[in-house]
Design a protein that fits this description.
The structure is a single chain. The protein starts with a strand and ends with a helix. The chain is 39% helix and 17% strand. It has a single domain, classed as Rossmann fold, CATH 3.40.50.1820. It is built from eight helices and eight strands; from the N terminus they run βαβαβαβααββαβαβα. Strand 5 and strand 6 form a beta hairpin. The chain is an alpha/beta fold.
């Protein structure tokens, strides 16, 4: 199993560690990592973009793992997960997305920027927007937006992803609309898709009951793809 983190997140979060605990209990190989500019990795965050982080995920898959993998992606990691599945379909046994956010640079950032923010970005190459998850603002660069447009998925229907897919989505998510989960399930070619909506769930889905739901979902899919 490979865990792919979200935007400005790192591999030490609650979901990453809960999945590690699950895999240890199962005797299951598990890998978590930080994209460049995230967590313990080198480079500045603002220098990165979706293409860079997708390349990092492919490097991890190609260099550090063998055989079929279950990919688990949280938020932006859900986008990276889908890009990885498209690039290496023969290596992907299954997918689990936690509030997956494909195309968020366009649909959830660019479209929400004010005209003033767009002018600032055009003048200095970036704009800072407040984060709900800490004191540090998000640094949104022109490169991030432009590169994101080269990796948009939901306008490429159908997506030739045939692996079983599970999505867990909070209906009170203020960052990723719950309708995105339905757009993804409609876009992929796989017929083995299940979407779980959490009525009172927010974006992070990191409370104890959320982590329990995640590990149950992942364990069940592991059992399925392993033929247990």
């Amino acid at each position: 199993m490979i865990f792919m983190t979200g935007f400005m997140s790192d591999m030490t979060g609650g979901k990453a560690l809960a999945l590690e605990e699950l895999c240890r209990a199962r005797g299951q190989a598990y890998l978590r990592f930080d994209y460049r500019g995230h967590g313990a990795s080198s480079n500045a965050f603002k220098e990165g973009c979706i293409g860079d982080w997708a390349d990092d995920a492919l490097d991890v898959l190609d260099r550090l793992t063998q055989g079929p993998q279950l990919l688990v992606g949280s938020s932006m990691g859900g986008w990276i997960m889908l890009l990885t599945a498209l690039a290496r379909p023969e290596r992907v046994a299954g997918l689990v997305g936690i509030a997956p956010a494909p195309d968020f640079t366009e649909n959830l950032i660019w479209r929400e920027l004010t005209e003033r923010q767009r002018r600032v970005m055009a003048e200095q190459g970036f704009v800072e927007i407040p984060s709900d998850y800490g004191d540090q603002p998000y640094v949104i660069t022109q490169r991030l937006i432009e590169d994101g447009r080269q990796h948009l998925l939901l306008d490429r229907v159908p997506l030739p992803i045939k692996a079983p897919l599970r999505i867990i989505q909070g209906m009170e998510d203020k960052d990723v609309p719950w309708q995105t989960a339905l757009d993804i399930q409609k876009a992929v070619e796989s017929q083995d898709v299940e979407v779980t909506f959490v009525k009172a769930g927010g974006h992070r889905l990191s409370e104890p009951e959320d982590l329990a739901r995640l590990t149950r979902t992942v364990a069940a899919l592991l059992d399925q793809v392993e033929g247990r």
